């Protein structure tokens, strides 16, 4: 049990998504990323990762930001997050994608005695183990659904929908025989 880091505990207890959540927590605590509570939009403040999983998280956040659920899903599929399972397989705690009997027993022990650090508690217990109520709420919530704006003739789908005059067709261009326009 002492051999496992937070990422190993997270993978054993919750899979690659939990590994990414631990990296998000670590980046958030270091102020490397900001997460809006209302929109769950993650923005990278500093692009200096502390480890490969953090690098995968930062790579999943474009310059304009991205909803946290999408960041977690993208980073959970990265080679860096999936590589955490390799050490668990070598230790005999996982076979393929599933924990072994020994791995399941260790997982029960970790859930009963989670670490004292925020990352350790998140790794073992998931978002419910986060003591910071704001961050716990952000991690537990789902991304808001995109707003579907109605499409009607007043949204610029043709010239007839605009109330603005077109300067190319000024009244002076139609009048006399000199052809002042084109």
Structural class: mainly alpha
- How far apart lie the N and C ends? 82 Å
Low-pLDDT segments, ≥5 res: none
Sheet with most strands: strand arrangement: 1-2-3
Q: Report helical residue fraction.
A: 40-55%
Number of domains: 1
In short:
The chain has nine helices and five strands.
What does this structure look like?
With 182 residues, the chain is mainly alpha-helical. It has one domain. It is built from 9 helices and 5 strands. It has a 3-stranded antiparallel beta sheet. The chain is elongated and about 75 Å long. It starts with 5 loop residues before the first helix and ends in a 42-residue tail after the last helix. The model has no long low-confidence stretch (mean pLDDT 85).
Attribute tags:
about 5% strand, mainly alpha, elongated, 5 strands, 3-stranded antiparallel beta sheet, about 180 residues, 9 helices
List the topology elements.
Blueprint: H1 6-14, H2 16-29, E1 33-35, E2 41-44, H3 52-59, E3 66-67, H4 68-76, H5 79-82, H6 84-90, E4 94-95, E5 98-99, H7 101-112, H8 118-125, H9 133-140
Antiparallel strand pairs: 1-2, 2-3, 4-5
């Amino acid at each position: 049990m002492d051999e496992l880091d937070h990422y190993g505990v997270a993978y054993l207890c919750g899979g690659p998504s939990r590994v990414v959540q631990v990296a998000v927590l670590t980046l958030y605590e270091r102020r490397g990323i900001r997460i809006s509570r209302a929109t769950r939009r993650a923005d990278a403040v500093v692009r200096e990762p502390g480890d490969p999983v953090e690098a995968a998280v930062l790579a999943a956040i474009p310059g304009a930001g991205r909803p946290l659920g999408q960041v977690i899903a993208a980073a959970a599929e990265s080679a860096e997050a999936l590589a955490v399972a390799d050490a668990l397989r070598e230790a005999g705690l996982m076979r393929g994608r599933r924990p072994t009997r020994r791995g399941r027993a260790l997982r029960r022990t970790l859930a009963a005695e989670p670490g004292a650090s925020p990352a350790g508690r998140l790794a073992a217990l998931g978002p419910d183990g986060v003591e910071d109520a704001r961050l716990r709420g952000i991690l537990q919530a789902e991304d808001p659904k995109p707003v579907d704006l109605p499409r009607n003739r007043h949204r610029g789908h043709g010239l007839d929908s605009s109330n603005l005059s077109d300067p190319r067709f000024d009244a002076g261009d139609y009048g006399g025989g000199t052809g002042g326009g084109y």
